[in-house]
Design a protein that fits this description.
The complex is a heterodimer of chains A (438) and B (306). By secondary structure, chain A is α/β, with parallel strands linked by helices. Chain A folds into two domains: 100 residues, D-Maltodextrin-Binding Protein, domain 2; 261 residues, no CATH class. Chain A is elongated, with a radius of gyration of 32 Å. Helix content of chain B is 33%, strand content 29%. In chain B, helix 6 links the parallel strand 7 and strand 8. The radius of gyration of chain B is 24 Å and the shape is elongated. Classes of the chains: A alpha/beta (438), B alpha/beta (306). Chains A and B meet through helix 1, helix 6 and helix 7 of A and helix 2 and helix 3 of B.
């Protein structure tokens, strides 16, 4: 009759009901969603105010270039700058005075904007854009080649190399190296983060029980191993809960946001902002048009990757959490953990670096070996998986991982059993080794 | 057959021997005292009885059979260093710990209600443990220990941290538990409570049992053959005794005398009677406190073992 479920239940509920957990769980998706939504929303906010710009064009060449519209009103006047400045000093309606002193083709720096208040970047680049376009046309015209404009348009080409992977049956599969990289890095990073945060939660939980001395009462009712396992499983469930809530909430928020903004934003604007936001866009551009993109996304077996993610997450977490539990049991307080937890965090940090490197060279021997070594495989394998990994490698890697976490849990159980009832002296590595044999 | 037998238990830690061939028999339905200076090995022995640690050699028998995991559930254990989850509410925590001991939620709730009422601590139910004082938390812990009506109770220093009123309450409760059929082992430094509560004791010193047996017998065997005699007239040294001290108290005299040979008490009495009338005669037995100090500081003249 095992009472492990009681322990799991307590560990789970006390943590999930904590204010810090709720805050982190519900605020993080808000933050994710905000990162996507805010730039889009910002772009819908236009400076609706009318801009009135006086132009003193001393060359009289650019009246065709600067055409007024709803937002920008250009007024050409023929007075010296000082005079204009004097007469319009108190006139708040004038945004700026543009002075073009010379032929801009010969002297590109001849245009100057004068204003009482700082002219915003948008206005400046709008005027620059108009003048640039005008000058470009002028230049093209000066070559005297018919249809030059069209020729240039045609000579502009956009290369997009599509990558196609042969799968085992020899079938062609359209793939995207960029997308594989993104998916791999994100899942590797999440695993890395979860193992570290929840692993150290296990450790501090054990230390707390030990310093509270609750542990003595509990191990008089349940076996120490059950207590340790219950804690590890309970916290794993907390981690999974948080992860799924993040996914669900992010999607819900994005959906809601889309619904709200759908009236205001047309697709072109969304693409525009995407390009402005630059970070995801850089790779999206390479993927090509939206249609192409869809087939590429479909080429990833997300369910499969999701299942591997869960397996590697659990395997890696169990491997590390049991060791963290052992460390927690060996010391009396959190400040003493350094000596033991550092060698534990080292391999996982190393794994992250290998993952970053492996994302570009998924088949390098370093990435290969690190995806077999259980201490690094959960993180490194996640990076390699989207590129496609031979089945035997996955099976072998999982087999080693499962064997190892059984071994570490067993070892940790031994240390834990002795450690939780030992107070006072901080044990040495040698003593931990002896505890294994009690 | 003794209720609990500890047979030749040896426990070796890295550098020191915690228990060296320790044996003891605890009769059923008695209160058994486990005494010894700090670091003698009491807590280790208690943990071994509780199956929390395994002995290197030796066995623990419950009613003649080796202790099983199921038996351990019927032990109520109050550790010396007590603690609860600080952030958890008192009631919730008591329920959790009771369920870990194998009680159903329903039974645990019923029992908790009874004890919280008895100890008049119902108002603590929804408080977090960190809001309670140390003594209050210990009271809660005592309730948790005895909640599942264990047949064997082990208290490690139960009275430490309690005020006199609560100490007395606890003592009464312990006696009451014994009357209801429980067997109780308790370790303590409070020798007065040993005299008051325990039938038998074991004194552990430097990992070994140095003194064991019935409290009354032990005290008798440590007799210094000193008596208190109250008389009207002064008395003087006789053949069988010498006077240690004589004080006048109101209209009588209180004398402390020491027997000098192995005569029986009647011979001693008749010798005094020849001198004067005796109003009272009482043997001055050493207190457990004296015996403890004497034994532990190595001046034991009369170690017995039975």
């Amino acid at each position: 009759m095992s009472k492990i479920h009681l322990i799991i239940q307590r560990e789970y509920t006390t943590r999930v009901m904590k204010r810090s957990f709720l805050l982190l769980t519900f605020l993080t998706p808000l933050f994710f969603a905000a990162m996507i939504i805010v730039p889009i929303w910002m772009s819908t906010l236009k400076d609706e105010k009318e801009k009135h710009i006086l132009v003193i064009d001393q060359t009289h060449r650019y009246s065709n270039a600067l055409k007024s519209n709803n937002t920008y009103i250009f007024d050409f006047i023929d007075q010296p700058l000082d005079e204009v400045r004097e007469t319009h000093k108190k006139d708040k309606k004038i945004t700026a005075i543009l002075v073009i002193a010379d032929d801009l083709l010969k002297n590109p720096a001849a245009a100057t904007l004068y204003s009482e208040e700082q002219v915003n970047l948008e206005t400046k680049s709008y005027i620059e854009g108009l003048l640039n376009e005008f000058l470009r046309e002028q230049k093209l015209a000066s070559y005297n080649i018919p249809d030059l404009d069209k020729i240039i348009q045609e000579s502009n080409s956009k290369i997009n190399i599509s990558t196609i992977r042969w799968d085992e049956q020899g079938k062609e599969k359209q793939s995207s190296a960029e997308l594989a990289l993104i998916i791999g890095m994100i899942s590797a990073f999440i695993i890395y983060m979860f193992i570290l945060t929840y692993g150290s939660q296990v450790m501090s939980g054990v230390i707390q029980e030990k310093t509270n001395r609750v542990v003595e009462i509990i191990v008089s009712s349940v076996k120490p191993f059950e207590l340790m396992l219950g804690k590890i499983i309970g916290i794993a469930l907390v981690g999974l809960t948080q992860f799924f809530l993040w996914i669900i909430l992010t999607f819900v928020l994005l959906f809601v946001a889309q619904f709200f903004f759908s009236n205001q934003i047309d697709m072109s604007m969304l693409q525009q902002t995407n390009q402005m936001a630059a970070m995801p866009a850089a790779s999206m551009e390479n993927v090509g048009n939206a249609n192409n993109m869809l087939t590429v996304i479909q080429s990833f077996d997300f369910v499969q990757i999701g299942i591997y993610f869960l397996i590697y997450f659990l395997g890696g977490y169990l491997l590390y959490a049991s060791l963290f539990a052992a460390v927690g049991s060996a010391v009396d307080n959190e400040t003493d953990t350094q000596q033991f937890s550092f060698p534990l965090t080292l391999p996982i940090i190393f794994a992250l670096f290998v993952a970053i490197y492996g994302a570009q060279n998924p088949d390098s021997s370093l990435a290969f070996w690190c995806s077999l070594i259980p201490f690094t495989s959960p993180v490194v394998m996640m990076v390699r998986l989207p590129y496609g990994v031979a089945a035997w490698e996955i099976v072998l890697s999982l087999f080693i991982l499962i064997l190892s976490f059984i071994a570490t849990t067993w070892v940790a159980g031994k240390i834990y059993r002795t450690g939780i009832l030992m107070y006072g002296k901080k044990p040495s590595w040698k003593e931990l080794w002896k505890w294994l044999k009690y | 057959m003794p209720f609990l037998e500890v047979k030749n238990v040896v426990k070796q830690y890295a550098e020191h021997l915690a228990l060296n061939d320790v044996s003891m028999d605890v009769p059923e339905n008695t209160i058994y005292g486990l005494l010894g200076p700090n670091g003698a090995g009491k807590t280790t022995l208690i943990r071994i009885i509780n199956s929390m640690t395994a002995p290197d050699s030796g066995t623990i028998l419950l009613k003649g059979k080796p202790l099983t995991f199921e038996d351990v559930r019927h032990i109520g254990y109050l550790p010396e260093e007590r603690g609860l989850y600080k952030k958890m509410k008192v009631g919730e925590q008591a329920l959790y710990l009771a369920q870990l001991k194998g009680m159903s939620r329903h039974d645990a709730l019923k029992a908790l209600k009874y004890w919280f009422q008895k100890f008049e601590i119902q108002s603590w139910w929804n408080k977090k443990v960190e809001e309670l004082s140390k003594g209050m938390a210990q009271k809660v812990q005592f309730v948790i220990t005895i909640l599942h009506e264990p047949k064997l109770l082990i208290f490690d220093e139960p009275f430490s941290g309690f005020d006199p009123v609560n100490t007395d309450l606890l003592k009464q409760e312990i006696i009451h538990l014994k009357e209801k059929g429980a067997t109780i082992i308790f370790s303590t430094h409070n020798m007065a409570s040993v005299e008051e509560l325990c039938e038998n004791i074991s004194l552990i010193h430097q990992s070994k049992i140095v003194l064991q047996g019935n409290v009354a017998e032990i005290r008798a065997s440590f007799s210094t053959k000193t008596f208190k005699v109250i008389t009207r007239e002064p008395i003087s040294n006789g053949i069988h005794f010498e006077l240690v001290q004589q004080v006048r108290k109101n209209d009588c005299l209180e004398s402390i005398i020491k027997k000098v040979n192995a005569c029986n008490n009647n011979t001693l009495l008749s010798e005094i009677l020849q001198q004067t009338e005796i109003l009272a005669f009482e043997e001055l037995l050493p207190s457990m406190n004296d015996i403890f100090i004497e034994t532990v500081s190595g001046n034991s003249k009369n170690p017995i073992s039975n």
